[in-house]
Design goal:
- Chain A: This is (2Fe-2S)-binding protein.
- The structure holds 2 protein chains of 2 kinds.
- Chain A is 35% helix and 16% strand.
- By secondary structure, chain A is an alpha+beta fold.
- Chain A has 2 domains: 2-77, Beta-grasp domain (Ubiquitin-like (UB roll)), CATH 3.10.20; 85-151, Orthogonal Bundle (DNA polymerase, domain 1), CATH 1.10.150.
- Chain A has a 5-stranded mixed β-sheet with strand order 2-1-5-3-4, with helices on both faces.
- In chain A, strand 1 and strand 2 form a beta hairpin.
- In chain A, helix 3 packs parallel to helix 5 and helix 4 (121-128) crosses helix 5 (138-151).
- Chain A is globular, with a radius of gyration of 15 Å.
- Chain A starts with a strand and ends with a helix.
- Chain B is of the alpha+beta class.
- Chain B has 3 domains: 13-167, Aldehyde oxidase/xanthine dehydrogenase, molybdopterin binding domain (Aldehyde Oxidoreductase, domain 4); 189-258 and 317-392, Aldehyde Oxidoreductase, domain 4 (2-Layer Sandwich), CATH 3.30.365.10; 278-293 and 404-689, Aldehyde Oxidoreductase, domain 4, CATH 3.30.365.10.
- In chain B, helix 3 packs across helix 4 (141-148) and helix 14 (494-507) runs antiparallel to helix 15.
- Chain B starts with 12 loop residues before the first helix and ends with a strand.
- The interface between A and B is large, with 60 and 64 residues.
Chain lengths: 152, 692
């Protein structure tokens, strides 16, 4: 076990966990931040996506110990009042079915649009292909990302 | 509410409930005018949590913006059929929900009438306000709620005329959006209780039992509290999830055969054998198939096969149980909370009335959470550890843990006369723990003079469970693809061929009354042909499919265009007759979701077995459909005037057939097995997928 210092959503945290503990489990089991989801644990599905210094990152395979110098943003910290343009677009388009994958979708989309503010539909498909939605909300996700891009 | 009205203080749900008057199991109204509607059925993305309250609010004539929805816990006194499955929630509860809203409105109006000393029929309601036209008086529901709750309503309350619906039939956003998009704790996996232990389980391969356990290394992992054994399972218990994932990998459990230890090669042999030699149960027999086939001008036959599939909801199995001396507390994702309770009662020895079940939001179900196997595990561990326990399944556990969609092989045969009429039809289904692998009374039964449907069930050691649109999720594809093969042999257009059969069934149903509404089936077929410009565009190669399941009729046409010599799947038209559409947004989700689900599994999904275990243990090998692999899906609803039927499942079954038939139309390659990508006939097709 080791004391690991992290900066998450602008706040400093200190957690006492095994060095190899992925950020995902630090967030969920130790910091009460359950918005970031577990689904595959091997960086195949995107449900665990957070921002590391603004870039989308799979938290299920990244040891928290490697992130002590980084600014981590989770879905809980993406906006003050759920009003990030991507969240607003998601609500406007009514994207979700079960909702379990959507935090990861939103985190991927928001990081993507930061880097590529005016993407083509093909670029949206390419970027969002990282995230699996088992319920099949893909048509809506695509529409919402395009809407968020147009809203900025 | 006008833009000028003063900003109302927003009450918390607790504050609302503290002062609310309860009108019935579904509905409470507070003096503030805020309304709480309880949604009893487990929510797994079908959005019943929005559509049920819509129905109540409609008959109540509520202001939807004042409605809050809460998930009800298990309560068999207050609610009937508190489960999610069979696409049955809406049709089952339609009347009940309407009555609940209408009765409350009746009482509110009666209270206002009493207060104003006028007759109730001088009053009318709109968006939570009662009006007396004659005097210009008006009053909000909240102000008369307390009085209304003291009155009694008659048994018969008139319901609204559907044409007066203001909420039902309009797109209403998911009531849980805010919480979902900001990562609030909603799902079973998000449930934490101070002081609880975590548990994960190592299960035996199918057909095997524990021979020996070496848990020394596992116990040594920091964060592991204990390793315990029950039935054929070994549980690692500790203070958080990650240590348990590591500990599980360090467990050394030896297994030995107890029953059949199967591999996919075994299954192949079993299917071959049972299709010919299996003891078949006759499910339906009309006319004389032997004579029909003997006298046939042409016989068409084909075999179709589907693999075992995992449900793979994004949220893996998990459950919280706290077994105490005199009660049990259960919290988690279940499609069958009553089964969860009875399972816990059996294991703990505690009476059901002392067991509570809080139903969390489900991160997908697809039928997997109809089973209470993971509930049983949580209860066992909690009881043995004498502590509150949250059990988590890893994705590997989920993919290898059974309760699969069964593998099935079908043999179809059709007899055609000289004019291309199908005079005989035979189907033998061999299923692995599939129960009845056929739907013997569904079309084309009733349309064929000589028909024989048989079933052979093989008891595999691999466990199965209802998978979205059980049996029809594959049977529909196989049947609709086979009917295209027959149409081709008969030299008839696939849609015309089916319409002829349907008209025949309508005019002269074979074997007694049809168990499907052939008019509705003809209806969606014709609309599908029209909407897709069937056969009109030589550059668009199309495939047709139509199926009736779960009270709903769905026809699909898949469009493939050749782009630079490559067949490209661009669009699927879906024509649905589900009676009245309650929430168009929700409906579109279920239609598209069902099609994406059907397509993804037809194209990619596969579980192969070696030594009693699947080879595919995570999403790197078990392929789920992704964003780039989805064509456009156009939805259209036929208004047949019926009350709402379900949509959770019916749009899935026709999908595989529509796509396979379109692929044949474009390439002359017949796909008789799923997943398509593993078929020899598919290998060099280079099928592109591009949203039209």
């Amino acid at each position: 076990m080791a004391l690991i210092n992290l900066k998450i959503n602008g706040k400093a945290h200190s957690v006492d966990v095994e060095e190899d503990t992925p950020l995902l489990w630090v967030l969920r089991d130790h910091l009460g931040l359950v918005g970031t989801k577990y689904s595959c644990g091997i960086a195949q599905c995107g449900a665990c996506t957070v921002h590391r210094n603004g870039e989308a990152m799979f938290s299920c395979i990244t040891p928290a110990a490697s992130l002590t110098e980084d600014e981590i943003t989770t879905i809980e910290g993406l906006s003050e009042n759920g009003d990030h343009p991507v969240q607003k677009a998601w609500a406007e388009v009514d994207v979700a079915q079960c909702g379990y994958c959507q935090a990861g979708q939103i985190m991927n989309a928001s990081a993507f649009l930061e880097k590529n503010p005016k993407p083509s539909m093909e670029e949206i498909d390419e970027a969002m292909n990282r995230n699996i939605c088992r319920c099949g909300t893909y048509h809506k996700i695509r529409e919402a990302v395009a809407m968020a891009a147009n809203s900025k | 509410m006008s833009c000028d009205s003063p900003k109302m203080e927003v009450l918390s749900t607790e504050e609302v409930l503290a002062n609310a008057k309860n009108f019935n199991a579904f509905l409470s109204i507070a003096p503030s005018g805020d309304i709480v509607i309880y949604s009893p059925n487990p929510e797994l993305g079908q959005n019943i949590k929005t559509s049920f309250p819509m129905v109540v609010a409609e008959e109540l004539d509520a202001d939807w913006s004042k409605v809050r929805v809460l998930q009800a816990n298990l309560d068999t006194d207050k609610f009937e059929r508190q489960l999610t499955g069979g696409s049955g929630a809406m049709p089952h509860s339609w009347e009940r929900l309407r009555k609940a809203g209408a009765t409350a409105k009746y009482l509110l109006v009666a209270a206002a009438a009493k207060k104003w000393e006028v007759s109730a029929d001088e009053l009318n309601t709109s968006e939570g306000i009662i009006y007396h036209k004659a005097s210009g008086k008006k009053i909000g529901y909240g102000e008369v709620a307390n009085d209304a709750a003291l009155l009694t309503a008659p048994d018969e309350i008139p319901l609204k005329d559907k044409k007066d619906f203001k909420i039902i039939g309009t797109p209403v956003k998911n009531v849980e959006n805010g919480a979902i998009f900001t990562g609030e704790p909603l799902f079973g996996l998000d449930f934490y209780r101070e002081g609880m232990l975590h548990a994960m389980i190592q299960r035996a391969p199918f057909g095997m039992k524990i021979k020996s356990i070496d848990d020394a290394a596992a116990k040594n992992v920091d964060g592991v509290k204990d390793v315990i054994t029950f039935e054929n399972s070994v549980a690692v218990v500790g203070t958080s999830t990650w240590p348990l994932m590591k500990a599980k990998k360090l467990l050394n459990v030896e297994y030995e055969p107890e029953g059949k230890v199967e591999s996919s090669a075994d299954h192949d042999e079993i299917f071959k054998d049972l299709l010919v030699n299996g003891k078949a149960e006759v499910k339906r027999e009309d006319g004389n198939v032997n004579a029909a086939f003997k006298n046939a001008a042409q016989v068409v036959s084909a075999e179709y096969q589907c693999p075992f599939l995992s449900h793979s909801p994004m949220e893996p199995m998990n459950f919280f149980a706290h077994v105490q001396a005199d009660k049990v507390e259960l919290v988690g994702p279940t499609q069958t909370p009553e089964r969860a309770r009875s399972t816990a009662a059996e294991i703990s020895g505690i009476a059901p009335e002392n067991i509570t079940v809080e139903i969390t939001r489900l991160g997908g179900g697809f039928g997997r959470r109809l089973s209470a196997d993971y509930v049983a595990e949580a209860v066992h561990v909690s009881k043995m550890m004498n502590a509150p326990v949250k059990l988590t399944w890893s994705r590997e556990d989920d993919l290898t843990g059974g309760a699969y969609r069964p593998a099935v092989r079908y043999r179809f045969e059709a007899a055609l006369d000289a004019d291309g009429n199908m005079t005989g039809y035979k189907l033998r289904g061999v299923g692995m723990n599939a129960g009845n692998s056929t739907r013997e009374h569904n079309f084309p039964a009733g349309a064929v003079d000589n028909l024989l449907i048989e079933n052979v069930n093989y008891e595999s050691s691999i466990t199965t469970n209802a998978w979205r649109a059980p049996i029809t999720n594959f049977l529909a594809y196989a049947e609709q693809s086979f009917l295209d093969e027959v149409a081709l042999a008969a030299k008839k257009d696939p849609v015309d061929f089916r319409l002829e059969l349907m008209e025949k069934a309508k005019a002269n149903p074979v074997g007694g009354e049809l168990q499907y509404n052939v008019d509705r089936m003809i209806g969606v077929t014709k609309v599908a042909a029209e909407k897709s410009n069937w056969g009109k565009n030589p550059n668009v190669k199309q495939g047709f499919s139509v199926y009736f399941s779960h009270r709903t009729y769905v026809a699909q046409v898949a469009d493939i265009e050749m782009e630079n010599g490559t067949p490209t799947l661009k669009k699927i038209h879906v024509i649905t007759d589900c009676g009245m559409v309650v929430n168009p947004t929700g409906a579109n989700h279920q239609v598209r979701g069902g099609v994406v689900d059907g397509m993804g599994h037809a194209m990619y999904g596969n579980l192969t077995f070696e030594g009693g275990l699947p080879t595919q243990t995570n999403f790197d090998k078990y392929r789920l459909i992704r964003m780039k692999e989805v064509p456009a899906v156009d939805t259209y609803y036929v208004d047949s005037g019926f009350d709402p039927t379900g949509l959770g499942e019916p749009c899935l079954p026709p999908t595989g057939g529509a796509i396979a038939n379109a692929i044949f139309s474009a390439t002359e390659r017949r796909l008789r097995s799923q997943p398509f990508i593993d078929q020899k006939e598919f290998q060099d097709l280079n099928l592109g997928i591009k949203r039209a």
